[in-house]
Amino acid sequence: MNYSYQKKEALFAALAGVLYVISGTLHIVEGLGADTGFAALLFVQADILGGFCLAVIGMVFLYGLLEMRRGIKAGMSFAYVGILLSIIFMAVYLLIMGGNLLDSFIVPGDYEGWNIMESLRPGIYLGLLSLMAAFSWKGRFSSNGISVREEV
Length: 152
Known about the structure:
The protein is mostly helical. The protein is about 65% helix and about 0% strand. The radius of gyration is 18 Å and the shape is globular. Keywords: Membrane, Transmembrane, Transmembrane helix.
């Protein structure tokens, strides 16, 4: 059975998927020691495992897009899981940022010259994108399943 999705859902899955995969790839490349030139501009850390996590989130979004384009009902489920994963990782990164800030007050000598922007990561600002999508689609989440419009 084919289902139709609004273009904004597919566009969000495509945009989020591409941004997460690019960000994850930059993390991995920086972690391997290559200088991309984008690291400082995009707050990318040299973190191979963090980059892998971001790339996996991006692939979840892109697979959801593929399923949506095929008209398969589960496509939107992948987008919702991608949103959930990105919000969870955003929360983890925010906790790390808060821990660094608290540590800078407790042990100020270790954080000389440090500012809060050094703890900002792509997982935070990309997570905000997913958070906005979750708030705009909050009526679609239900315990009975996902409400999707059927094609007539």
